[in-house]
Amino acid sequence: MSFLVNLALGLLFGAGLVVSGMSDPAKVLNFLDLAGTWDPSLAFVMGGAVLVAFVGYRLVLSRGRPINAESFHLPTRNDIDLRVTAGPAIFGLGWGLGGFCPGPALTALGLGAAGTLAFVPAMLLGMWAARLLADGGLRSRTA
Amino acid sequence: MTEFTPLASTAGGMMIGLSAVLLMLWEGRIAGISGIAGRLLPPYLDKAFPSRLAFVIGLVAAPLAMMAVTGAPVVQTVSSNIPLMVAAGLLVGFGSVWGNGCTSGHGVCGLARLSTRSMVATAVFMTVAFITVFVVRHVIGG
């Protein structure tokens, strides 16, 4: 059951990326090109998504617990450290170079463009390296 | 040039937001793609693995399902500069997981939760991405 719900929510998320234009790197790079061929569309993607999530999270979190889990798993930290500044800076550099962030890159995988097929394995390798570094080495994780 | 699409982009954004809200309702998790995908990689293995895998399968299948339903192709322009895309992929993967989130985890879910860390993270990756495109297109590219 949980598998099917997550599959449906992944489909909805991915369809949202396609409908919004966020899955097209050309549109992302034009959004980021303020001094050139600027396309403001992606501000509307963020606006629509944050608006729905802002209202929806308040409704959902006013429940005692999720439907299929004991409790909500929410980040609680509020401090600004090296990881939460340098990490996004590295991410932003890659995003500006390729026009893909993780969601759209995965969505593009099945369309089979050569650039996507180069990007996604490299992204997964980068994610794996960051996990190892963040978790302090190769040990079995159960959390 | 790409066409300005405020209505489609708002509608698509709302679908993304709805998916995030329903994931929170169903199992109390943040819909952060870097977090979900990063925890599919070894040595991670926990009981949420099948759920995360299902979400990623849904993401990958979405444009294919849409093409099957609508009969219209999903149009994309991806750079064919392979070394550039490998470098970009490494940076995006490393930076998003090390920084605990990407456009979805920090940019959508974090901002919606009014998280200070996510506001800082989003401001940083947006600023660096704007500067990167400016340098690539207008300083180097000329």
Keywords:
heterodimer; A: 143 residues; mainly alpha; 6 helices; 66% helix; globular; disordered C terminus; B: 142 residues
Write the layout of secondary structure elements.
The complex is a heterodimer of chains A (143) and B (142).
Chain A: H1 2-20, H2 25-32, H3 41-61, H4 82-98, H5 102-108, H6 114-135
Chain B: H1 6-27, H2 33-38, H3 49-70, H4 82-98, H5 103-112, H6 116-140
Helix pairs in contact in B: 5-6
Helix content of chain B: over 70%
Shape of chain B: globular
The coarse overall form of chain A would be globular
What is the mean predicted local confidence, pLDDT of chain A? 93
Please give the radius of gyration of chain B in angstroms. Answer: 17 Å
Secondary structure class of chain A reads: mainly alpha
Which stretches of chain B of 5+ consecutive residues score pLDDT under 50?
A: none
Biggest chain-to-chain interface with counts:
A-B, 123 and 115 residues
**pLDDT < 50 runs, ≥5 residues of chain A:** 138-143
What is the residue-mean pLDDT of chain B, rounded to a whole number? 95
Identify the quaternary structure here: heterodimer
Q: SS-based structural class of chain B?
A: mainly alpha
SSE succession of chain A: HHHHHH
- Please indicate the count of domains of chain A: 1
Number of helices of chain A: 6
The profile of the biggest β sheet of chain B is: none
Share of residues in strands of chain B: under 5%
User: Major sheet of chain A, described briefly?
Assistant: none
